[in-house]
Amino acid sequence: MIDLQEVHLSAVIDAVRANQRFLCISHVAPDGDAVGSLLGMGEILTMLGKEATLALADGVPDNLTFLPGAERVVSADGVGDVYDCIIVLDASSPDRMGNVYREDAHGKSPLVVIDHHVTNTYFGDVDWVEPRCAAVCQMLVYLAQRLGVSLRGNLAEDLLTGLVTDTLCFRTSNTTADVLGAATVLMENGAQLSAITARTLNNKPFRSLKLWGEVLPGARLAERVLWVTVAPEQLAAAQATAGDLELSSVLSAVAEADISATFIQKTDERKAPVVECSFRAKPGFNVSDTAFALGGGGHPAAAGCTVPGTLEKAVPPIVAQLQQARAQQATGQ
Amino acid sequence: MIDLQEVHLSAVIDAVRANQRFLCISHVAPDGDAVGSLLGMGEILTMLGKEATLALADGVPDNLTFLPGAERVVSADGVGDVYDCIIVLDASSPDRMGNVYREDAHGKSPLVVIDHHVTNTYFGDVDWVEPRCAAVCQMLVYLAQRLGVSLRGNLAEDLLTGLVTDTLCFRTSNTTADVLGAATVLMENGAQLSAITARTLNNKPFRSLKLWGEVLPGARLAERVLWVTVAPEQLAAAQATAGDLELSSVLSAVAEADISATFIQKTDERKAPVVECSFRAKPGFNVSDTAFALGGGGHPAAAGCTVPGTLEKAVPPIVAQLQQARAQQATGQ
Lengths: 333, 333
Hints:
333 residues, six-stranded mixed β-sheet, homodimer, Diaminopimelate Epimerase, Chain A, domain 1, inorganic pyrophosphatase (n-terminal core)
């Protein structure tokens, strides 16, 4: 069984018990672990007789609205000013909270950070960070158990959804025996694994396939680094958005590559061209250092960043950095 | 915890304890569960001080030779005549043993069948069949525990490989809490999940991706039937073979389709054009009737056939049949 950060977990438990009115926040561009942990935290607080406002700057993505409690989630205009305590889930730095957190109104309340990113900046008054957990939803299994809250029902379904989506159904390299153990407990408490995978991972829009047809002919492989680029014209041709790509797990399954990357051409708020970069590494390799050096963050096995420029200018030097990092890591093994 | 067939499990344990020289066999065209359970059974018998010959009519496939003990496996010419007991793993009927079992030589020895297929014909003297187990490797976790054999080391790695490959890394609908529980125990005993998925499921050649880039632009969706066609020129452009396609599970994850199909242009022995058809159906839909009507076969969820003709001529009427079948099945629900 995993050694938890007991001092910090105890501080979270104290904060939960001592307060009544909570604002819970997860990160912008929310994924399954963001939504699952937010809804799960809401369930835990409700079962303890607390009041909780659940907030996401970008709302619940369409493919996760099936989750029990999703209708409770508010965006910025549903967030009040006064809370006893603010709990932030799955966010490695304060900017990840987006506009649902307002320093002027919320800065006075104690801030509790619950996260599993190794890159967490410890920006809370209480910071419970467990990089060895594959998802914040895994951490909430332990929190619920410590608080004596039953996992049965909605809570199990919310938490297993985050665990399944963050590990791509237990395929990521951080899937430890403890991850499977937590998933086992959630299934024993009624969570339906195959229904969750059917509604999340096995639920791809047809336009994703058309987009793959646009970008895969341009897939490149050199020095065991594999990459694809996505231009706005390709998105238009497939009638798709960048969110439809979801190609990372396919790329990271390619035998001849240790590191894979996707590069998507976007524009920032000032209409300047930027490239959104997403990296994956196989076990034994690390992409978080490269992402961090480029102003991004993430885990050793999955990281990303956004850099200024066009695909033509920005991609070649980043690919070279990834190839260099891979070569060094291969030598070091 | 699963209710095991205790009477039959006890009979297996008695047969293991009472005998010394074993012949262990798994099925022709072996998959991960066949090889994993065969090697696992070999480990169990060795640890109990027994002698075991491990036999596969078709040998160990290349992608599974990394498994500990794979070098012990023999084909027909390595099988002797006289054994105290024969243990058959993951085979639903005697023909699945292939030529490593010879009735004249082996028919005198007691035959122990260990299987998880609901279609098992109970052809042994002892038949331990657990259709609620997702893999025979899951059954061997319970057998090892009952026999007091440590799972640590090679045994854990062999058994987790079978469990992972038969459930596509816990994505099949028969992945219960007991499956995850067994996998947890195996990881706690040292099996490396991410290394196993990396070497089995996440081990796609780059040419598969290039082939997807060739065929996905032609993916079509109509009346909730999704299909792709593969012409010889496309295989040539990707420097790939038909076996590199492996697109079925991607197609069957598309939200807007209930039935998916791949059509590959081939030629038969007389150089006449034929189309190899592979169908998948989502839960609640059935493609085996259509495949059967076209001279093929399979299961409700996955079936196929080979028909004469070219893609241009053969595909449209088959797509129409699939669309008609789907419409009837949707009405019947």
